[in-house]
Write a structure and sequence with these properties.
The complex is a heterodimer of chains A (about 300) and B (about 325). Chain A is mostly helical and about 300 residues long. In chain A, about 70% of the residues lie in helices and about 0% in strands. Chain A has 16 helices and no strands. The model of chain A is unreliable at about 1-10 (pLDDT under 50). Chain B is an all-alpha fold and about 325 residues long. Chain B has 2 domains: about 1-55, no CATH class; about 75-320, MetI-like (MetI-like fold). Helix content of chain B is about 70%, strand content about 0%. Chain B has helices at about 1-5, 15-55, 75-80, 85-115, 120-135, 135-145, 155-160, 175-185, 190-200, 205-210, 215-245, 250-260, 280-290, 295-320; strands spanning about 60, 70. In chain B, helix 9 (about 190-200) runs antiparallel to helix 11. Mean pLDDT of chain B is about 85; it is low at about 1-5 and about 265-270. The chains are: A mainly alpha (about 300), B mainly alpha (about 325). At the A-B interface, helix 2, helix 5, helix 6, helix 7 and helix 12 of A face helix 2, helix 4, helix 5, helix 6 and helix 7 of B.
């Protein structure tokens, strides 16, 4: 907190210790605040707790009103892999996420650069197309695109999910552009004076300075594709050998009847990579989300 | 830009002009190269589908034979005959009018509480953000289990408290509230955005408000809300657009809950919207026509309508917001 920015009064105003009654009231208010917060936090965590507990129950326990597993059946996590081709789903998911994220980065960074740091006629118009694409719901374009992929005989494999990402993603372009705009022109001019072409500037100066934004875009893209259910449902539903984790999980219970314990174990396994990724890259996550909100 | 600055004062000899010409060409080629992914992407994955949607909406098309022009028939059926459109629109309106406000309210409430916390801001932020990360399919499966009427933990606990828990996802009255609970659990993204905005509010404003004798509620009304109003607008717009496209949770919940009810997991039964069409939201209806019945023409008509409505609603919200959104430093 900056006391320096407080207007003139700060200099003359002497901070006295507040009287005991005021301090007591403040303390009680703080206690009340924190206890409410802790209660709500516990409520938010209970679903995770029940998923974990159920995933360790026997099938009979999971179908009874017991809340605590006895005995703990760790073997469920072995059985899950035996019951369903989770590894294959995971590999498909990984292919989709990684190739799509790579595509988003390779295609969106140059576009964002051209839209922010090079001046050319029609730039505003081009940026307007990004905004329009950003505003329109993707559900709308789903039917004609499906028809298109069906004509190309690509329905049933990962192509229709990955390929569009190699042609620029409106959200990523927008986010990157806003960030590129904040890079001071002096850095770029200095590089230009040194004889760098625009491509060199992009590759050296801009990419280095825009790391947080690029990390955020990569994270979002990875997360989005990892969690994506709608497009895989459209394009992969009929072809189980190409199922991704989300489709597999949603069909898990119908493949194996009512085994809630195994279903919860699978659910937890599908949640795990994202949660681990979050703890590894927490700062980038929070900065990224904030970036979308503040710049939006 | 830099070239013109350098050559502006120089005499226009033919050679200089040619050099400038070449530089301009190089520049244009560079821009074209950098922009090419988006130019192709915008045309193929955006412009083309948009035009095609409108065209297909006037045809009968089942992917097997070529599209047959039928004029306004799809729209006529959509507006006057299809018995599912009315309920689907009402269900989606329910999301916009009840679920979205609750989400925004909760996100704001939680963000305010976290911002007031003296300790552990980082810890609480993580706790409230984590559920938003959970894949929607996994989160929905977990909630269908948690809210399982007979043996689910929630009803077991309610039973211990002497409350007879509702049927949740099995009941047409409770299926949408159940989905709302799920969506409130996942408010993490909104919460983080609010939290950042609240913590960003200039401290002097609070201090001067306090000196003027403003209590906590007045400070909230006259300092916090105005300073974060652009962020509230942003959240409302994205939440409304998301609600109009609400699909995954509804699909998975209906699928799992109905499979649970029949105990058979029979895949041939059409379980979209289970129970009793109460979770048949507009996008689910679109999916049903397009990708279960392969009525591409009719599905296109549905999507064109969605496009028009989504666009209108967004513009309306942003227009109306001028009255209550305050932009710091804006001249107005």
């Amino acid at each position: 907190m900056s006391t320096a920015s407080v207007p003139v009064a700060a200099g003359t105003l002497v901070r006295r210790k507040p009287p005991w009654a005021v301090r007591r009231r403040r303390f009680l208010v703080a206690v009340a605040d924190h206890s409410l917060l802790i209660v709500v936090a516990i409520i938010f965590l209970t679903p995770f707790a029940f998923i974990v507990l159920t995933s360790l129950m026997t099938n009979e326990q999971a179908l009874s009103s017991h809340l605590w597993p006895s005995p703990f059946r760790w073997h469920n996590y072995v059985d899950v892999f035996r019951e369903a081709p989770i590894w294959r789903w995971a590999i498909n998911t990984f292919l989709y996420s990684v190739l799509a994220t790579l595509g988003v980065l390779c295609s969106s960074i140059p576009v964002a650069y051209a839209l922010s740091r090079i001046r050319w006629r029609g730039r505003d118009l081009a940026f307007a197309t990004v905004l329009i694409a950003l505003m329109l719901p993707p559900v709308v374009s789903v039917v004609p695109l499906y028809v298109m992929w069906a004509k190309l005989h690509l329905v049933g494999n990962l192509g229709p999910l990955i390929i569009p990402n190699w042609f620029g993603d409106a959200f990523s372009i927008f986010l990157l552009r806003q960030f590129f705009l904040t890079i001071p022109e002096e850095y770029l001019d200095a590089a230009r004076v040194d004889g760098c072409g625009e491509l060199r500037i992009l590759a050296t100066v801009v990419l280095r300075l825009a790391k947080p934004a690029i990390a955020a875009v990569a994270l979002f893209s990875f997360l989005y594709t990892f969690n994506d259910f709608f497009l895989p449902l459209l394009y992969l539903r009929e072809n189980p050998s190409h199922w991704v984790l989300q489709i597999g999980l949603s069909e898990f219970r119908s493949l194996h009847q009512v085994q809630w314990n195994l279903t919860m174990a699978a659910t937890l396994l599908v949640m795990a990579p994202v949660i681990i990724l979050f703890f590894l890259a927490q700062k980038a996550f929070v900065e990224g989300v904030t970036l979308t909100g503040v710049k939006g | 830009m830099t070239e013109t600055a350098v050559t502006a004062g120089a005499p226009f000899t033919a050679e200089r002009r040619r050099a400038r010409h070449r530089a301009a060409w190089r520049r244009r080629r560079l821009v074209l190269m950098l922009m090419s992914p988006w130019i192709v992407g915008f045309c193929v994955f955006f412009g083309y589908p948009l035009v095609m949607s409108v065209y297909l909406s006037f045809t009968h098309y089942d992917l097997l034979s070529s599209p047959k022009w039928i004029g306004w028939a799809n729209y006529k059926y959509l507006f006057t005959q299809d018995p599912q459109v009315g309920p689907a629109v009402r269900n989606t309106l329910w999301l916009i009018l009840i679920m979205v406000p609750l989400q925004v309210l909760f996100a704001f409430g939680v963000a305010t509480m976290v911002a007031r916390a003296k300790r552990g801001v980082g810890f609480f932020r993580t706790v409230f953000y984590l559920p938003a990360l959970a894949p929607p399919v996994a989160a929905t499966m977990a909630f269908v289990y948690l809210l399982n009427p007979a043996t689910g933990p929630v009803n077991v606990i309610l039973g211990h408290l002497g409350i007879n828990g509702p049927l949740w996802f099995q009941s047409p009255q409770w299926s949408k509230p159940s989905l709302t609970l799920l969506s409130i659990w996942g408010i993490g993204n909104l919460m983080i955005i609010f939290l950042a905005a609240i913590l960003d509010a200039p401290q002097q404003l609070y201090e001067s408000a306090e000196l003027d004798g403003a209590g906590p509620i007045q400070r909230m009304r006259w300092v916090t809300l105005p300073t974060i109003s652009p962020v509230i607008l942003f959240s409302v717009v994205i939440s409304v657009i998301a609600a109009m496209q609400y699909f995954t949770q509804a699909y998975v919940a209906a699928n799992i809950a109905s499979g649970q009810a029949s105990q058979a997991g029979d895949q041939t039964v059409n379980n979209l919207g289970y129970p009793e069409g109460s979770t048949l939201f507009y996008p689910v209806l679109l999916y049903q026509h397009g990708f279960r019945f392969f009525n591409m023409g009719y599905a296109s008509a549905l999507s064109v309508l969605l496009l028009i409505v989504a666009f209108t609603v967004t513009v309306l919200i942003i227009r109306n917001s001028r009255r209550w959104v305050h932009y710091a430093g804006a001249v107005k």
